[in-house]
Amino acid sequence: MGAPRTSTRPARRYALPPVALVLLLFAASARAEEANQWLARVAKAARELSYVGTVVYQRGTRVESSRLVHLYDGGKETEKLVSLDGPAREVIRNMGEVRTYFPDAQVVRVEPRTFRNAFPSVSSEQQKSLAQFYDFRALERERVGGHIADVVAFEPRDGLRYGHRFWSDVDTGLLLKARMVNDRGEVVEQFAFTDVQVNAKIEKAMVEPSWPKVPPEWRVKQLSAGDVEVHETGWGATRVPAGFGKIMEGYRKLQGRKNPVAHIVFSDGLVAISVFIEPFATASVPLGMRPGEGGLNVYSVKQDDNVVTVMGEVPPATVRQIGNSVARR
Amino acid sequence: MNENLSRLMDGDLDPSELDSLCGSLAKPDLVATWSCYHVIGESLRGSSSIPCGYTARFAARLAAEPTVLAPRTRAATPPATWIFAAAATVAAVTVVGWTAMSVIGESPAAVAKASEAGSLSAARLRPSTVPADYLLAHQEYSPATAMQMGPYMRAVGTQPAETPADRP
Hints:
The structure holds two protein chains of two kinds.
Chain A: H1 18-48, E1 51-59, E2 62-73, E3 76-83, E4 90-94, E5 97-102, E6 107-112, H2 124-133, E7 134-144, E8 147-156, E9 163-169, E10 175-181, E11 187-198, E12 219-222, E13 228-230, E14 235-237, E15 245-252, E16 261-267, E17 272-279, E18 288-293, E19 296-303, E20 306-312, H3 316-323, E21 326-328
Parallel strand pairs in A: 6-12
Antiparallel strand pairs in A: 1-2, 1-11, 2-3, 3-4, 4-5, 5-6, 7-8, 8-9, 9-10, 10-11, 13-15, 14-21, 15-16, 16-17, 17-20, 18-19, 19-20
Chain B: H1 2-10, H2 15-24, H3 28-45, H4 54-64, H5 79-104, H6 108-117, H7 132-139, H8 143-146, H9 150-158
């Protein structure tokens, strides 16, 4: 969305004196610090507040709304998300576990929810790349879902990543709206509260599932991302965009696979890109580009006897570029 | 008439035919064909936004469709339409194939078993959906997870009823 750029600095016609240059460099690192603090506050607020509201999720031309209830009580989070349009879906998230109910198919899916990446990043290298590869700016305040919101933008300095804009509640820091845009300024994906009560009084019953843990006659589908063993894999990607540092490399034991799958993760401090490599013969992966799951793009390509899959919240061209550059080191 | 619709979408329709075609677009079955072509086009371009229930309805209609063995007359179909028609068929098969795979393809082992059975060609047996365990593994590191917004909101929004088991 092409909101007008509000330039805060007047154009300079003369060369910068050295002192000013030093000040600018200092300002850049202050920016990185500011961006990091902002992210930290928002991530914490999302976890440690109790709130209830209606969320609209938009990707491409699709719009869906859900009711979200989030309870933070005694250091524990419980969350219930119920779809309001389309087929009925209900997601219950407790510490470390996500249960999704599909009443039409009579399936309940159980999956772990683990988060292994410190966010915002604690590594100074990633904090630096955040400031180097995105232009972080605070924009004018706006109203979202009945609340006054601080608006910040992370605008990419190259075409290899998406632009991000966030709206957070001025009083509590709760993220009220998040938007990802491509290089043409089009919305790739967006979440927004249309109404939300923060610090609301939430009863336990409001975050309980509408069905028993496993309803009789329903099928349970257990998912797992497998254990990860950090280890050199011998694989590398030569065309990972600058600013994406490797944050993990290892092997995963995935369900139903004879061989462990190599998994390498890169991050620029704002998004992550995963690279998976497994033998072609046993891999159950569709080849080619799989765009369209909102901002998450996936590309799989056969490299000799292996399938390389790259996924991340970056443009299709970026996952393709990385996928095609994966080779044994 | 359907060919004219297809030509209209491709920008190949003669302007003189436009008025009569727009007039006949009031008919419900032609409107359905029109939207169907758009869904196919979108999914071919990768900007798929297939409405819920579409696949099921499409599969039912495809099953009910008689197989036409009579040869076509050449002049009736300009080359562009042939290409489009071929592409549309591929898309249709893919859509139906995906649904089938999602039901069969619970695990790589199941896929391998189905492959041995040889009832479908190997190419068709590559599943359409990205393995859910890949997505889960990625989410463990995706900052969107920390912001609480991304992954499972996507999940609720994107899961069609046909494939609950294999989507994130």
